[in-house]
Amino acid sequence: MDVLEKFKSTQREIWRDFAPLEVFTTYTAFPLVKHARIRAEHRVLDVACGTGVVAVTAARLGARVTGLDLTPELLERARENARIAAVEIEWHEGDVENLPFSAESFDVVVSQFGHIFAPRPQIAVAEMLRVLKPGGTLAFSTWPPELFMGGMFQLVARFLPAPPPGVSPPWQWGDPNAIRERLGAAVKDLVFDRDRLLSPAMSPQHHREQAERTIPPVMKIIQSADPSTLAVFRRDYEELAARYLNENAVRQDFLMTRATKL
Ligand SMILES: C[S@@+](CC[C@H](N)C(=O)[O-])C[C@H]1O[C@@H](n2cnc3c(N)ncnc32)[C@H](O)[C@@H]1O
User: Which residue has a Cα nearest atom 19 of ligand 1?
Assistant: First the structure.
């Protein structure tokens, strides 16, 4: 298996336990669907859909939706979510770097904190644009590197094995300049917006404990770090959370991008 395939197989293992966090991404799904201006007549692809929160939200507006994700365990939950919401969605196990769809199949391609984990941004962008119709909308939510979640991913990266060369870190997708460069001349009408997710916590320590139980990359550190490394990780996490904790919630502001394919 080549290094990037191995990287993706590790990603698949890491994200397997993500389903409980859908309680948070359910909140952010509606702002993204609104930002993407999804309507009933649209054919929509939700890339790296996880448990399908964006896909289900779009389908409830009447759109014809397809969801794709690398991790089969999350797609199982996505199927269950569609069943509960009584909507029809087509689900695919797959990789954003190699989408199993014909060119120009969708009116809207969305990704909520998803395609950012593909190792090669230019390949992910090329694939998302390939399957989009000319004049179609690409829209995604990402974590700015200078804010809480971007900072959390940078902290986590310091305590996990380095990814293979050529793998781009997810927080770069939170920088409008990087986005502008990555989408380049293939799009027009690039628009950015920001919104806020509040994550309840009584103290920085509560937030850290919750992360250790629920955020897959943090769970991986807890399983593998020795006690002194773990103590440093915990101290640094709590310092980061303390900077964003206000009135019993940690502010997790995110960036939304929308562009039209030329
Ligand atoms: C933070 S979760 C977000 C899930 C979902 N979009 C949501 O908002 O709840 C990241 C997702 O990216 C998926 N993922 C990571 N690398 C991927 C790839 N190369 N292709 C497709 N999905 C990928 C993971 O399996 C996981 O479901």
Answer: 118
**Residue ID of nearest Cα to ligand 1 atom 15:** 117
Mutate to test the pocket of ligand 1, among 4, 23, 57, 69 (most ligand atoms within 8 A of CB): 69
Choice from 71, 123, 149 to test ligand 1 binding pocket (greatest atom count within 8 A of CB): 71
pLDDT digits (tens, 9 = 90+) for 153-197: 999 999 999 999 999 999 999 999 999 999 999 999 999 999 999
User: 89-93 and 132-142 as β-strands: parallel, antiparallel, unpaired?
Assistant: unpaired
Walk me through the domains of the chain, giving residue ranges and CATH numbers: 3-144+163-196+254-261 (3.40.50.150)
Structure tokens at 121: 């941004």
Helices (H), the chain: 3-15, 22-35, 53-60, 72-85, 121-130, 148-159, 176-183, 204-214, 216-224, 227-244
Cα(109) to centroid(ligand 1), Å: 14
Model confidence pLDDT, tens digit, residues 136-157: 999 999 999 999 999 999 999 9
Interacting residues of 29 by C-beta distance below 8 A, sequence separation 6+ = 53, 54, 56, 57, 112
